[in-house]
Amino acid sequence: MRTGGPGRALPWPAWIVEALTASGGSATPLQVSRHVWAHRRAELEESGDLLYVWQLELREAAARMVASGLLSTVDDAWVVADDAAARTLTARPSGWDADDVAVAVAAYVSLLRDRDEGRPLRHREALAQVGERTGRPVSAVESLFANVSAVVQEHGVEPVAAYAPRSNVPRGVRPAVREALSP
Questions:
Q1: What residue numbers bound the domain in which 61 lies?
Q2: Which of 90, 119, 147 is the last residue of a domain?
Q3: CA pair distance 17, 58, nearest whole angstrom
Q4: Which of 31, 73, 123, 181 has its CA 20 to 30 A from that of 12?
Q5: Alpha-carbon distance 96 to 137, whole Å?
Q6: For the chain, what is the mean pLDDT?
Q7: Residue 131: which residues within 8 A CB-CB, separation 6 or more?
Q8: For residue 21, what pLDDT is reported?
């Protein structure tokens, strides 16, 4: 599997299931590709050389899913084998990995800079951007932003008012904030 940037695997199976779900449970490879492009274009464009071969990677991922019994083919369309397979394919780990934390911290620090420089804060855009890049719901991003607020406050920086500090800081947030705040 190729990566979307250094060390970051693109979640092909989840994207395939997302497209199939949006299409009512069944879609041709072309329909799946159109959906992925429409909804994941930014991630694909950031993936470097993968931009030129992403449809091949998508088809290879689908072939692996068919071979493992997670997908089946019916009349040239892909279909998720069953509900258990769909849950397996779309499950996200409960914790935030280092790449996802870095994306969230960068967006939060950008909000801090906007505030400090007198620019309007674009909370919704920041939440949506982090959600899109990490595959997390907005509510999860808001929770992580609250954790980042706690760590920012530990560094003597006033946190973004919209995200009241929460002390249950996940692993990896403190080093990411420390690095982001370093001059």
A1: 12-90
A2: 90
A3: 12
A4: 123
A5: 12
A6: 84
A7: 137, 138, 140, 141
A8: 84
pLDDT in tens, 55-84: 888 999 888 888 878 888 888 889 887 666
Among all chains, which residue has been given the structure tokens 């935030």? 96
Written as six digits, the tokens of 114 are 């906007």
φ, ψ of residue 104 to 5 degrees: the values are -65, -45
| Rounded Cα–Cα distance for residues 1 and 141 (Å) | 26
Token pair, residue 150, equals 């706690």
For the chain, where are the alpha helices, taking DSSP H only?
Answer: 12-22, 29-45, 54-68, 83-90, 98-116, 123-134, 138-154, 173-181
| Alpha-carbon span 178 to 183, nearest angstrom | 10
What domain count does the chain have?
A: 2
Three-class DSSP category at 72: strand
Q: How far apart are CA 29 and CA 26, in angstroms?
A: 10
Max CA pair span of the chain = 61
Give the C-alpha separation, 33 to 78, whole Å.
Answer: 12
Give the global pTM. 0.52
Residues 165 and 120 in one domain: yes
Tell me the per-residue pLDDT of 3-16, one tens digit each, with 9 for 90 and over.
Answer: 444 434 678 888 88
